[in-house]
Amino acid sequence: MDGLDLTGRGRHVLIPCQVVGEAKAGDRVNPATGILTLQAGERVQVTLKMQLEFEGKFTVKALNPTTMATYGSLELQTDYTV
Questions:
Q1: Pick from 14, 31, 20, 34: nearest CA to 76
Q2: How many CB atoms lie within 10 A of CB 22?
Q3: Alpha carbons 45 and 75: distance in angstroms, whole number
Q4: How many Cα atoms occupy the beta-carbon half-sphere of 28 within 13 Å?
Q5: pLDDT value at position 1?
Q6: Spatial distance between the Cα atoms of 31 and 75, rounded to a whole number of angstroms
Q7: Please, is 48 exposed, middle or buried when counting C-beta atoms within 10 Å of its C-beta (0-12, 13-18, 19+)?
Q8: β-strand 35-38 against 11-14: which pairing, if any?
Q9: Quick count: other Cβ atoms within 10 Å of Cβ 56?
Q10: Which residues, listed in sequence order, are joined to residue 70 by a DSSP beta bridge?
Q11: Which has more confidence, 47 or 5?
């Protein structure tokens, strides 16, 4: 699967999935703000915490947390394996 290409300068990235989920707080995601900080050229995987009842297509967007300008987006679909 292709990811979001955010090459360039170091960036602070906000990845909202407010309707069906959110970036799961952890090593890279600030639990207070939901913001992920990346260095130039860095690749990271972000776990999405989805609403349990949601199934279907959704869009993950990487936004500048100050201006809300879109750095990139990724169209995905749930594929829960039980």
A1: 20
A2: 16
A3: 15
A4: 17
A5: 42
A6: 24
A7: middle
A8: antiparallel
A9: 8
A10: 63
A11: 47
Is pLDDT above 70 for 5?
no
> Which residues are bridge partners to 14 per DSSP?
35, 63
Q: Where are the domains of the chain?
A: 11-77
Amino acid at 16: P
β-strand pairing of 48-50 with 21-23: antiparallel
Percent of the chain with pLDDT over 90: 0
Q: What's the CA gap between 16 and 33, in Å, rounded?
A: 11
User: How many residues are present in the chain?
Assistant: 82
Residue type, position 81, single letter? T
d(CA 39, CA 37): 7
Structure tokens at 82: 């039980």
**Residue of 75, 17, 26 whose CA lies nearest to 50:** 17
